[in-house]
C-alpha cells in the first residue's frame, strides 16, 4: 500500500474534521508482521549501521544520529509493514510523523523485535567506533588512502608513455635551460666534493681527526 493512499484519506484541510479523525480508519488495510527471521533482522541492523557512520577529514569515525533515527524508523516500516515509500521518501516520512502514524506503527510492532535490532545496532556501532578510532585503525585508514593513490601497472605504463609526450611539448629554449641548470648542479656537486676531500687531507696532514 502506497503511503500516498494514506495521504488521500486525510480529511481536507478546510474540513472541521481535519484535526480530529480516527487513525485506525485511515490505516485500513495496513498489515504488520509479528516476526522476522533473525537473518532479516541482521540485514536491517547492517543497513542502519552503514547509513549512520561517517569519517571526517582526520579519519575519525563518528555517528550521524539524525540519519540513525530516520533510517531506523523507515527500515521498521519497510520491513514490518506493507507500506511503500514513494521516490520522495522524506516527504512521506514527514507525513507519517505529522499525523502520528509513525508512532502508531512503531508501537504496534512487537517490542522484542525492535529491541533485538536496536541492541544489535548499538553494540555493533560501539565496536566499530572503538576499532576504527583506535591508533591502529586510524593508521590503517591512512595507509589505505596512500595505497589508493599509488598507480597500478596500467597507471605506471601510462605515466611512462606520457613522459616523451611531455618532453616534446617543451620549448627548445626551455629544454636548453634545463640542461644548463642540470650541468651547473652537477658541477657544483663535483666541486663541493673536491673541496671536502682537500680539507680532509689538510686536516689529516695536520693531525686533526675528522669524524663524519
Describe this structure in words.
Helix 3 (38-52) runs antiparallel to helix 4. The chain has helices at residues 3-9, 23-26, 38-52, 65-80, 89-98, 101-108, 111-132, 135-149, 153-169, 172-206; strands spanning 53-55, 61-63. The protein has ten helices and two strands. Strands 1-2 form a two-stranded antiparallel sheet. The model has no long low-confidence stretch (mean pLDDT 78). It is elongated, with a radius of gyration of 34 Å. A hairpin with a 5-residue loop joins strand 1 (53-55) and strand 2. 70% of the residues lie in helices and 3% in strands. The longest helix has 35 residues, at 172-206. The chain is mainly α. The chain folds into two domains: 3-149, no CATH class; 168-206.
Q: What tags apply to this protein structure?
A:
elongated, two-stranded antiparallel sheet, 10 helices, 212 residues, 2 domains, single chain, mainly alpha
Q: How many strand segments? A: 2
* Overall number of domains: 2
Sheet with most strands: strand arrangement: 1-2
Largest sheet: 2 strands, antiparallel
Amino acid at each position: 500500500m502506497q503511503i500516498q493512499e494514506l495521504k488521500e484519506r486525510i480529511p481536507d484541510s478546510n474540513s472541521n474534521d481535519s484535526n480530529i479523525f480516527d487513525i485506525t480508519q485511515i490505516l485500513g488495510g495496513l498489515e504488520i508482521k509479528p516476526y522476522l527471521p533473525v537473518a532479516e533482522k541482521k540485514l536491517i541492523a547492517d543497513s542502519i549501521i552503514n547509513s549512520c557512520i561517517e569519517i571526517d577529514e582526520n579519519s575519525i569515525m563518528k555517528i550521524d544520529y539524525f540519519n540513525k533515527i530516520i533510517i531506523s524508523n523507515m527500515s521498521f516500516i519497510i520491513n514490518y509493514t506493507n507500506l511503500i515509500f514513494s521516490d520522495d521518501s522524506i516527504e512521506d516520512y514527514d507525513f507519517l510523523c505529522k499525523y502520528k502514524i509513525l508512532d502508531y506503527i512503531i508501537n504496534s510492532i512487537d517490542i522484542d523485535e525492535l529491541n533485538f535490532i536496536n541492541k544489535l545496532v548499538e553494540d555493533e556501532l560501539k565496536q566499530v567506533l572503538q576499532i576504527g578510532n583506535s591508533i591502529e585503525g586510524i593508521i590503517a585508514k591512512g595507509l589505505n588512502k596512500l595505497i589508493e593513490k599509488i598507480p597500478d601497472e596500467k597507471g605506471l605504463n601510462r605515466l611512462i608513455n606520457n613522459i616523451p609526450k611531455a618532453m616534446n611539448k617543451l620549448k627548445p629554449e626551455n629544454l636548453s635551460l634545463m640542461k644548463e641548470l642540470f650541468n651547473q648542479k652537477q658541477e657544483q656537486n663535483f666541486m663541493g666534493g673536491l673541496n671536502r676531500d682537500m680539507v680532509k687531507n689538510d686536516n689529516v696532514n695536520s693531525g686533526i681527526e675528522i669524524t663524519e
